[in-house]
Amino acid sequence: MTTLLVWRDASHYDHRGPRPCTICHRPTPLRSHRGEPAHKTCAETWAAAHPNEIRFISDATTNRRDADDHA
């Protein structure tokens, strides 16, 4: 089962441009919490295949009243 990562923080987007994803090697502007270039879906798939390793993590969640995804 794949667990979805929460990467809402702006630090996951690198405005300097795309770099090769460390998993699929295709360009991505996304970065992990450690600054590692990775598509979110690649990171989720990798995490599901390696449940005992902590390489990709979700952002800390807040208990904001407006934290839902509704428009």
Question: How would you explain this protein's 3D organization?
Answer:
With 71 residues, the protein is largely without helices or strands. It has a domain at 10-49. 14% of the residues lie in helices and 6% in strands. The chain is built from 1 helix and 2 strands; from the N terminus they run E-E-H. It has one helix at 40-49, and strands at residues 19-20, 27-28. The chain has a two-stranded antiparallel ribbon. Strand 1 (19-20) and strand 2 (27-28) form a beta hairpin. The N and C termini lie far apart (28 Å).
Keywords:
71 residues; little secondary structure; two-stranded antiparallel ribbon; 1 helix; 2 strands; globular
Taking the sheet with the most strands, its summary is: 2 strands, antiparallel
* Shape annotation: globular
Poorly predicted runs of 5 or more residues? none
The helical percent reads 10-25%
Please tell me the overall pLDDT. 87
* Count of β-strands: 2
Rg over CA atoms = 13 Å
- What oligomeric arrangement do these chains adopt? single chain
Provide a quick synopsis of the model.
This protein has 71 residues and is mostly loops.
